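User: I want to check something. If I give you two sequences, will you return the structure for each one separately, not as a complex?

Assistant: Yes, each is folded on its own. Here is the first sequence with its structure:
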Amino acid sequence: MNLDKMEMILSTVDKLGAVSVKQLHMILKLGSYRHTCRIINQLEDYLHVVRSQQKIVYLNKEGRQLLGSEKEIKKSILFDHMLLANEAYIHYGCPLDWKREYMVETSLEPEFSYGIQIKGLTVVNKQTIIPDAVFTRNGYVYLIEIDNTRTMQDNRKKIQKYRDMWPEISKHFRVSPKLCIFTSSDKRKRDFSQLCHKLPHEIFTFQEIK
């Protein structure tokens, strides 16, 4: 296998964090599934391999060094979350500028009531929010949220934070944001629809995109 092909495959693994071989087969389109498995086997010197219900791979130290990547992934319960995020990535056609866990930080200078200000002191209210992934398309920045373990109480808090930060998120990206949520049940989909009714949004169950 030539170096360009090797780095292309490993870079895809690096972008997604942890990915199943089945997902790599869908993303990379390397031929038959058997051929994809054979190629991944050739790259195992650069990969950690986890075998559970499916074969999952992520970069080891040698793989990170080959690519110059500083994004170390460790085996954890977050793998299920990453694999579901990969399903969203595939659903949107594998965007080139897909970024996982992209922190959005906004700064807002508060309005002072009664005209009272402290001379020489600028008070800045900083807020941060971390979508599970972001990418841009057709004049929008898509903010991806994967809902597989959070309580609805926590979800309500995060959606309210999006609502509070929405104008500043637009300024941060300089394009219109769209909130895209992937969740586990039709009931949760309906709940999210109510929470997001004043925001540009798309909501899917995981079953709808598989």
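And separately, the second sequence with its own structure:
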Amino acid sequence: MPSSVSGPTLTGGVAIGLLAAVFAFGEITHLRSSRRRLGTTRSSTGSDQIIVVLGFRNSGVRANWLNRFRVRAGLRSIDPTARSAVVVFCGGAVGGRVPEARLLERYAREELGYTGCALLETDSATTWENIAEAVPLIDEVLRPDSTISIASNSHHAEKARDHLWQLRPDLGRRLVAGADYRFGELPFVKPIAAARGLLALRRLDREKAAL
């Protein structure tokens, strides 16, 4: 009798342990990624904020779930103690006829009630292009005390921060952490995003080392 009960109980315990390990992997890797490749300034308190929200391939005329997440991450990155905040929405018409940047801004304003300053970059098709095309817009609003945050999922935002460091080290030094990481958010997505993101970051580092 005891052996007939211990089998299913043990199996259930292993399954729970595996789920817990996967959940922990997603959380820990996203938390670490959100704190890497930042600049020398550690806080946006009292600064003029520039927040760059990266778009994702969108086939419809409404922001998809991942783009909606990125907009929420961008808007919650606004520091209430900052002197000013400008949000730069990025992304061209990659998956549909409407540029991702316009879908991001529309969601921010019409569904989240954002009324602040926004700039749109509507030509890019890759993460590198997101940042390269956003730089002139950043320069337009840059002030002596401006900080820069990049909003996406944590690993993608880290990759974009690396691109900014490569393109403009002077702007890279202004990078501060955004609010892309929240404990327990998107628990089923984080492990998959972490696995893909870590591979992409390792590939990026290998390419840089080979130069």
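Because they were folded independently, the notes below concern the second chain alone. The longest strand covers residues 48-54. The longest helix spans residues 2-33.
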